[in-house]
Amino acid sequence: MKSAPSKPNRLRLIKLIHVARRDLQMDDDTYRLMLTSMKGLDGATSTADLSIPNLYRVLEQLKQKGFKIRPSKTTKRPPAGDPQSRKIRSLWLTLRDQGVLHDPSEDALVRFVQGLTGVEALQWLTSEQASQVIEAMKKWSARVEQEEV
Q: Is 0.90 topped by the overall pTM?
C-alpha cells in the first residue's frame, strides 16, 4: 500500500502514536497485531500505510488502552511584556514582599488573574481587564499596609 500524502499534522500524529506505544510498553508484535485487528485499516501493519483519519483512529485506540497525552514542556508561552502586564507583575512582587502570598510564582499569578477575569494568560487580557487586575492588587496591597499600622 502506498503511504498517504504528507501533511504537517501527519508527522505529529505518527510521533504521538510511537510515544503512546512506548509509554504503554507495547512491543512490536503486539502493536502490529493491534493494527491488523482494527477494522477499516485494511490490514495495515505500519503507520506509514495509514491516512490521517486512520492515524487518529489508532491514537484513540491507544488512549483507550491507557495512553494520556501530556502537554509539552517546551510549549510554555513567554511572559507578557506589555506595560500593564509588567505593572501586574510588579504589584505581585510587592504583595510577595509584604508576605501575603503563599505562592509568588508566575503560575500562581496566572491563576489569580484567571480567578478575577476568567482569562488564562496575561497576554490575552484586554486593557480593561488588566486595569481591573491592577486595581484589585492595589487595593489588596493597601489593605495589607493598613493592617500593619
A: no
